[in-house]
Amino acid sequence: MATTDEDLSQLERDIRQLKIDYEQYFGGGKQRPPADTEWRIETMIKRYSDRGAAMNYTQRFRYSNLAQMYVKYKEMFRKRLKQKEEGTVVRHFGAAAKEIEKERALKLAAEKGGTAVMQYPFAISCKDPDQEKKKVEELYAAFRSAKEQVGESTEKFTFEVFQQFVRQKTSQLKEQKSAHEVEYIVMLEGKHARLVARMKS
Hints:
This protein folds into 2 domains: about 110 residues; about 80 residues, no CATH class. About 60% of the residues lie in helices and about 10% in strands. The chain has 6 helices and 3 strands; from the N terminus they run H-H-H-H-E-H-H-E-E. A 3-stranded antiparallel sheet has the order 1-2-3. Helix 1 runs parallel beside helix 3 and helix 3 runs parallel beside helix 5. The longest helix is centred in the middle third of the chain and has 30 residues.
């Protein structure tokens, strides 16, 4: 049985495939809309909307991102289908889809009653990552969202790998700089997401 993270990764792949399939359909490369993929996505979204309490912060944040992305795409596809039926030609569909994907990270909230709309730069201070897992989860979610916003791959960007990086970097800076606390900052620079670590005085 697949884990929650595996299901969310599959959901992310399905949403991206849905976008590709719809672009091919609207461009004349496919005869039918990708109904099977859409059904799979909606089934998965419904399943995890009922399991919110069973997910950790990072998983809920990621699920919220994906669900919001799907809603945006679905509305865009609905309009395109209507225009196709009416015979109205609209160009630059791919560019419009990319623009929506870039903007969504700035408009979503992590969860009900949770953090506000994600803003960059995003910063947290950390003394001991092993004792401050919540902060590491928030930093991971922010960095992942930033990567998605600029179109960088997050396929192999797991929380476990990120947590190990933060643990090592914090220890390294505290030893080299005699720091008691390390500040991590997520920034957007052009088409790249950056994570900067520095000693906090």
